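FIELD: query
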Amino acid sequence: MSISRKALCVFYALVALLALVGTWGNNIAYLDMGLAAANLHFWQQTLVNPASRSITVDILLLGLAAITWMLLEARRLSMRGVWIYVLASVFIAISAAFPVFLIHRERALAARDGSASAGTLSVAGLLALVVLGGVMLAYTLISLGR
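FIELD: result
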């Protein structure tokens, strides 16, 4: 099944929006103590138990790999402004900034080759993404309800 660049960009935008709401819907709980104290308290809480430490290490190292790739890919495609995505990754949320970078990348690729196709997915691959996305949406909504 062929996936258009436009459909992929819409998907990335929805992921970025959900990530922004999901992360900052939880981060707001820290902001009543001032920015410096909130930042310190947040990072202290990432060390509270093995689950929080595991997911934090996982996200930080995934983020390092993603940021390295973003810098290299931006240079390869002559994309300007990549440091905005890097800073947004650090100060807002990589889960929100990375999909926005991917939108920029799709636009750069479209301008480069003129193709409207982003690639193909099998029906099984598409169904797997739908199921995975549903699980991630459900977890995000549960996290916001706590």
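FIELD: remark
The chain has a mean pLDDT of 96.
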